[in-house]
């Protein structure tokens, strides 16, 4: 399962958002079930960043998103992101962090 998060930084927060996402990568990569994870910045739009993570299982992703590290990711997106689009697997993109928060609550 692939998690893709596209986030547009709030004005003046592009560098802080990118650095925060980079700082979260080591914990993401160590999470049970995480196969691959990286952050990219759009070369034409410095406000736009994409976090992509491949998970070996849905359960591994759910465990991560319920953890303190998952909470930190959601908090960073809420604090520094002007708009957030989340795609889980091949599903439709969802606006905001609500999809991630819903997974935290359901499990």
How many runs of DSSP E, i.e. beta strands?
5
Q: End-to-end distance, in Å?
A: 17 Å
| Element-level helix/strand string | EHEEHHEEH
On the 0-100 scale, what is the average pLDDT? 92
Helix content: 40-55%
Strand content: 25-35%
Task: Determine the structural class based on helices, strands and strand pairing.
Answer: alpha+beta
Our count of helices gives 4
User: What is the global morphology?
Assistant: globular
Question: What's a quick, concise take on this entry?
Answer:
This protein is an alpha+beta fold. It has helices at 14-30, 58-66, 68-80, 98-106, and strands at residues 2-9, 34-41, 48-55, 81-88, 94-95.
What can you see in these coordinates?
This protein is an alpha+beta fold and 107 residues long. The protein has 4 helices and 5 strands. Helices cover 45% and strands 32% of the residues. It has a 5-stranded antiparallel beta sheet. It has helices at 14-30, 58-66, 68-80, 98-106, and strands at residues 2-9, 34-41, 48-55, 81-88, 94-95. Helix 1 (14-30) runs antiparallel to helix 3 (68-80). The chain is globular, with a radius of gyration of 13 Å. The model has no long low-confidence stretch (mean pLDDT 92).
Record keyword descriptors for this entry.
five-stranded antiparallel beta sheet; 5 strands; 4 helices; 32% strand; 107 residues; single chain; alpha+beta
């Amino acid at each position: 399962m692939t998690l893709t998060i596209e986030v547009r930084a709030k004005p003046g927060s592009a560098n802080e958002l990118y650095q925060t996402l980079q700082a979260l990568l080591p914990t993401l990569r160590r999470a049970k079930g995480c196969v691959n994870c990286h952050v990219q910045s759009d070369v034409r739009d410095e406000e736009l960043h994409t976090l992509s993570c491949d998970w070996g299982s849905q359960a591994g992703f759910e465990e991560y998103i319920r953890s303190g590290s998952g909470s930190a990711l959601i908090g960073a997106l809420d604090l520094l992101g002007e708009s957030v689009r989340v795609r889980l697997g091949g599903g439709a993109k969802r606006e905001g962090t609500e999809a991630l928060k819903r997974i935290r609550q359901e499990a």
